[in-house]
Structures are given as structure tokens and as C-alpha cells.
């Protein structure tokens, strides 16, 4: 019976064959332990000299790391292994012998591992992170589908830019200039006027010259947009969504969290409601904490965000930022026009901002004025202005950065390990 490692619980006491790679091995005189991986998981294969032919035992002892195999054996329960099962090997067929696999069990430097990202992905840690990433994506679709949202795909090649024009990747679009999308938001607003509640999930591109553990040049964003939702309504969706994905990972990726040595107690109690603090109060709080480098009107840097986040054990919303440091489309607060109805959600434990969102301006004249004030080319935004010209309604939305969210939930220090092939400031390969 051919099976995969995640399915072996169905075959306890039976003989199965697994297509696998040799991740690692060790042997003592009469017994060889093979660490096998097949993509679905990891299992230990045990080869006992007295139970197999001399030929098989010698083969097991001489196998090289990452050789591909068909391994046949009997599945046994094993309470000592975190996985709970092991394979008592009866036969090994070598499909391909890997010679001098570059990533050995010893420690390698990050640059070396990044140069070998196409192979590094095979390691236990990277496997766990990719499984958690996949679970967050799965739970995202589940959450939004269960709550009546329609998935809409905005374009990647765009003519207009929502988040300012300094970080755009420019490319030729026949005779015109085009930009790689830095956010699908404006298109999602159009879609919300057609379909009510929508969400997108796609790659976004920022030519940011930032070399930090939170910045990628290409990252994936989930962008919900909701017609007739005001600022408060949107905050509620955001906290429910984030609590939902954390609980999904907690429930469905227990093995992976253990493999990453994630402190699960930090995730267990992530439930709604999330705390909130206004930008004004955040500035006061930072001054009390001795941050003299920041004044009203400045954007927060990573140390500021971390100081605020450390005060709470759940993600925190920082709301009502100054109009001057936010994009053109944000709705002014009803009682004062120097701040806007926006919120950033800051993850605990120093992982930084995972969500940016706001209520959108839906007054045609104000929106036009803001586009002009931001020196954006009106012609490129004419279609967007149409949304507030024909049956304009209050609406809100937000964008969650997938990689920062994966980093936080997995407890991985740097976002470069949360995406299969990271695009960084100085890295386009592999
Ligand atoms: O705050 P941002 O720039 O918001 C927008 O783009 C809005 N248009 C979204 C919307 O309202 N539909 O980005 C949203 C999130 C951030 O909170 C962060 O998690 C992530 O995207 N992000 C990055 N992640 C990795 N690398 C980068 N360079 C990122 N820039 C933003």
C-alpha cells in the first residue's frame, strides 16, 4: 500500500510504502535510524540489522542526505516521537542518490541559506512555516466565505497608485507607463459597490529601500472592502478575522508550532475584543516611556510600535492618525479634520504593523480635492472618482500583510522565512 506520512495513522500494524527523501540519519552497530520526509511530514524509519537482509542494512547505512527513496515497512505507534508513529523498515529502493547536498545538519549562515532557498525550503523549520502560512490562507478563505464576502481579483498591472508614488515599480505597458500593484484597494472599492462585501488575496510590490526584518519588496496582502461599513464596523471585522486565523493555526498546526518552539500560551488567548489606543494617546504614552524623539505628526518607527505593543498581550489598534501622514483616501474624523478615521493593527511581541485600514472618503468634492492636494494625476483617478459620483456610500476596508502575520504567529524573527522565495532589497535569486 502506497501512502504518505500524514496518512500513516490509518495503517498501524500494516506494511506501507512511502516515497520519501532522507533528511538525516544516524546508526549504531545493529540499528540505523532514518529521518524521512515526504513533503507531507517527517517520520523516523528504523532499520534493524537482524530483521532485514545484509544488503538492505548496508544500503541504509550508506544512504546520502536528500537521496530519494521508496521505503517499505510496518507502521508502529511510538509515544516517544512528537509525531506519534515510526516505520519499521523492511525494504529500501533508491530512486536517485543525492551527492554532496549543500545544506548539512550543521549550522549555516543566513546568506548561505538564502542563496540555497530552493533547497532550504526542505528543512523542518521551513516546512513548518510554510504549513502555517497555508493554514492562514485556508482560514482566510473560510472566514470571508462564511461571512458573506465575495473574492475579487484586482489587477497587478495598474495605472494609478493608492499608497503614494515614491515606492512604485514602473514598467512599460506598450506605449504607456504602468506600475506593479502596491495595493488593490481602489479596485476593491469599485468591487464593493458592485458586490457589497469583497476580499482579495494577491501579491503587492513596494520598491521600498527598507532593509528590516519586516519589509519585503514583494509581499501578499488580503484586502477586504465593505460597502455601508463605517469605521467601527470595520474594526470589528478586523479583530474577528485575526482572532479566527490565530485560533485556526492553534487548532490545526499544533505539531508545526511545537517544531518551531513557539510559546503557544502567547497565542491561546488571542480573542476579541482587541485593545485600542488613539494616536494622540500613543504619543503621550511614548513620551511617558521616555521616547523624546517623537512628536505629534510623526509616523511611528519600529521601536515606538514595539513599546506600544509590549503594553498589551493582544494585537492593538492605533487609531486616528494625523491626516498629514496618511494617504489621500481616508475619511476625516467627524469632530476634527487634523486626524482621519484609520487604524493600524500592531501585533504583539515586536512583530509590528500587520493591518492598515480606514473608512474611505465618499464625498466627491473632498476626494477630488485630496487627490489634487497629493499632486496625483487627476486623469488617472477619474474612474475612481466615479464611485463617489454615482450612489456614493460610506465604506471601509483594510489590508493584512500575510508575511508579517505568518512571522508573528509562527514566532519567526524575519519575514524572509515566511514566503517561499523572498524578494528583498538585494535579492532577486533564487
Ligand atoms: O498599511 P498599508 O500600506 O495599507 C495599504 O496598502 C492599504 N491600501 C490596504 C487597504 O486598506 N486595503 O499595508 C497593509 C499591510 C501592512 O499593515 C503590513 O502588514 C503589510 O501590508 N506591508 C508589508 N509587508 C511586508 N513588506 C512590506 N514592505 C510591507 N508593506 C506593507
Automatic annotation (TrEMBL):
GO CC terms, sorted: cytoplasm
Entries under CDD domains matching the protein: AsnRS_cyto_like_N (cd04323), AsxRS_core (cd00776)
Keyword list, A-Z: Aminoacyl-tRNA synthetase, ATP-binding, Cytoplasm, Ligase, Nucleotide-binding, Protein biosynthesis
Catalysed reactions listed for this entry: tRNA(Asn) + L-asparagine + ATP = L-asparaginyl-tRNA(Asn) + AMP + diphosphate + H(+)
Gene Ontology process terms (BP): asparaginyl-tRNA aminoacylation
Principal EC category: ligase
Pfam families named in the record: tRNA-synt_2, tRNA_anti-codon
Keyword Ligase set for record: yes
Domain of life: Bacteria
Ligase keyword on record: yes
Main location, first listed in the record: cytoplasm
EC annotation from Swiss-Prot or TrEMBL: 6.1.1.22
Similarity field: Belongs to the class-II aminoacyl-tRNA synthetase family.
Quaternary context: Homodimer.
Protein name: Asparagine--tRNA ligase
Source species of the chain: Lederbergia citri
Gene that this polypeptide is encoded by: asnS
